[in-house]
Amino acid sequence: xxxxxxxxxxxxxxxxxxxxxxxxxxxxxxxxxxxxxxxxxxxxxxxxxxxxxxxxxxxxxxxxxxxxxxxxxxxxxxxxxxxxxxxxxxxxxxxxxxxxxxxxxxxxxxxxxxxxxxxxxxxxxxxxxxxxxxxxxxxxxxxxxxxxxxxxxxxxxxxxxxxxxxxxxxxxxxxxxxxxxxxxxxxxxxxxxxxxxxxxxxxxxxxxxxxxxxxxxxxxxxxxxxxxxxxxxxxxxxxxxxxxxxxxxxxxxxxxxxxxxxxxxxxxxxxxxxxxxxxxxxxxxxxxxxxxxxxxxxxxxxxxxxxxxxxxxxxxxxxxxxxxxxxxxxxxxxxxxxxxxxxxxxxxxxxxxxxxxxxxx
Amino acid sequence: xxxxxxxxxxxxxxxxxxxxxxxxxxxxxxxxxxxxxxxxxxxxxxxxxxxxxxxxxxxxxxxxxxxxxxxxxxxxxxxxxxxxxxxxxxxxxxxxxxxxxxxxxxxxxxxxxxxxxxxxxxxxxxxxxxxxxxxxxxxxxxxxxxxxxxxxxxxxxxxxxxxxxxxxxxxxxxxxxxxxxxxxxxxxxxxxxxxxxxxxxxxxxxxxxxxxxxxxxxxxxxxxxxxxxxxxxxxxxxxxxxxxxxxxxxxxxxxxx
Amino acid sequence: xxxxxxxxxxxxxxxxxxxxxxxxxxxxxxxxxxxxxxxxxxxxxxxxxxxxxxxxxxxxxxxxxxxxxxxxxxxxxxxxxxxxxxxxxxxxxxxxxxxxxxxxxxxxxxxxxxxxxxxxxxxxxxxxxxxxxxxxxxxxxxxxxxxxxxxxxxxxxxxxxxxxxxxxxxxxxxxxxxxxxxxxxxxxxxxxxxxxxxxxxxxxxxxxxxxxxxxxxxxxxxxxxxxxxxxxxxxxxxxxxxxxxxxxxxxxxxxxxxxxxxxxxxxxxxxxxxxxxxxxxx
Lengths: 361, 257, 282
Fold this sequence. Notes:
The complex is a heterotrimer. In chain A, 23% of the residues lie in helices and 34% in strands. Chain A contains eight helices and 20 strands. In chain A, the strands form four sheets. In chain A, strands 6-7-8-3-9-10 form a six-stranded mixed β-sheet, with helices on both faces. In chain A, strands 13-12-11-14-20 form a five-stranded antiparallel β-sheet. Chain A starts with 7 loop residues before the first strand and ends in an 8-residue tail after the last strand. By secondary structure, chain B is mainly α. Chain B starts with 7 loop residues before the first helix and ends with a helix. Chain C has one domain (57-273): MetI-like (MetI-like fold, Orthogonal Bundle), CATH 1.10.3720.10. The longest helix of chain C has 33 residues, at 57-89. Chain C contains 13 helices and two strands. Chain C has a two-stranded antiparallel sheet. Chain C is mostly helical. In chain C, a hairpin with a 2-residue loop joins strand 1 (35-38) and strand 2. Chains in contact: A-B, B-C. At the B-C interface, helix 1, helix 3, helix 4, helix 5 and helix 6 of B face helix 1, helix 3, helix 4, helix 5 and helix 11 of C.
């Protein structure tokens, strides 16, 4: 497969924004290529929605610039930017029917009636809502409203489509289905999608690139595999796939040591404290210690959720240390609460990460 | 289908409604009574309706009331709607105070409003008549429109206007395409309420109508003070019919939606 | 329209309110402290005479009578109107629509028309007396018209729709699962009603109270028509002083006292319910 370098369609340059005394964005820079599906991922209040609104022109940055197709659009009002938004609440006009909603952008551009009708029909076919032209927003289900909102934005052939948690209000099953459908639409049209969510599963399923945000800054940007397998910081590791964060000091080649035992790590330099991210599914357990690396832990609880069994343990022979989680597909794991075990994992599956403020052992 | 069981509350609701409608029915029945006195049924007649339409003064008063209601609720619609739209977007220190002041006319007993208008208009040396009536009625019509529109504006999802901008509408276009159609029902119901209140008002009008101008409620009131006449029954019956028809119509319209 | 030009929209409202609401009210306050010179005239010299004059037993009695009437009107309206609004809101959607329609007709109908019906009913040789005599319950016609009860009937009747609508709106939007939760936790129906329903519908009830109490202080024409000239309310007194009595400062002082009472009541409503808009109206 050959990778073509496309020029960036959207560039954010040192964007800052505060609401009153509260800084929301603290110098955000990013460039997004044509046809990319980029997801801003973060917990609420991290500034992801504000970023999207700044791109749309619904919010003005305090400083910095927004470039669209190489052109500085920072000072342009939303109606003069070739980007469109799918709002979290869908924002369908209640006094217009589905066809009028979808055709609204074209009507503003004075496209002639015949063409509007034709293109609305095309869009309805694209989002699989043929025959819904005359319905009102209030007569549609959540999923259908969602499709209308997408069609209304896409009909204007925007350079970039902005989606603000568009699946937030849907139930789990519908959300999964819409994820697939959104991805299909994006591939089919080749439009650049900038997507905002707090759901890591959504981000991993759909994105070409994930931008993990935290506290007004970009914590890490990379492909889903990159952020999953090589998280840069402890925060990213915990946020995506809820990794266990452990600390220790080097105690040999690819080994770390702390008060609960020794553990494997990819090669590290220096002799200072190292923070390690280990995913629950990579942790193996033994009844008896024998190898060169093992951590003592005691099982506290088991719980089943979303096709995964999670076993909660506490480090230390007496189970007095910090908590740690092992996860497995299926429902059978040969571990019972109260048991004492030794833990180990392949060195390559652990990742050395930057610690964050809330230091974990 | 589930069999409906009788609820004691039905009896209560029916009884209260019966008492509510009793005087209204009495008015209607005696408008067709062939007797000058509304005491006993003497036979059916449409005579009182005929005399009603010949009563020039009463017809004149009716016309005055309609004109007054339309003019003041229209003025209130403009001032109140613009005011609500503006108030939602500005952040002056005086805003809360002004908002309170503008609703004072429906918060105070009518008698006070009528009295202060009378005193104030004579201070300004305004001739009592149409001008004073329209100003006074507009004053208590504004709050109805203002509060209705304000409530509606609060209920409108902010992202609707943003979506319009996002799709390429200028602020002006957004206002006319989105905001205005969404608040129009509120403006309309505010106007209807304002008209009804204006059309019904005796207390304030009586202070500011001046020596020659009369509205329908004032006319009816003076008739009632001197005693009952079947013509007034006929007039009341007609007004009742209009109210009922308008209400039925608006109910059907809403049901269709 | 630019964002910064929105202030233009409020100019008419500000102008009208300042000139025709604040102006007259301030003028009334000023006049209430002026000295009456008789014959529609008064002098701009500060005096408290107009307020002292109210201590005259005649006027005190008038205030007392008005307050009593307003209070009994309000209490009766609560007693009759609250259950009505409550039962109404508990009906099926169809029933609600019908009842709402039936309440809306009197609501939208001129209060004079409805008053007129009572006038016919209550007359000495009117429908009610004839009916009672026909039943044999009385031999001679009862004197109902031009008595205190007649005025009370007229007041309660005239303001009844306001109370019902206010209560109905409040009960209608109440979350019934809260009452069920109270029952589930062991509250008796009565206790659940008192601790949950009544508390949650208090804004509606309060709003109804204000919508009946405030106007009933000033509806002089009801007292006038159904009470003859026997019952003099503050409203009638003000009207009388403004026109026939031609003592503007005294009328202004009476109005000022009435306004202060009303404003206090509204302030209390805001304090208790924490809202500014009256429930059921808007």
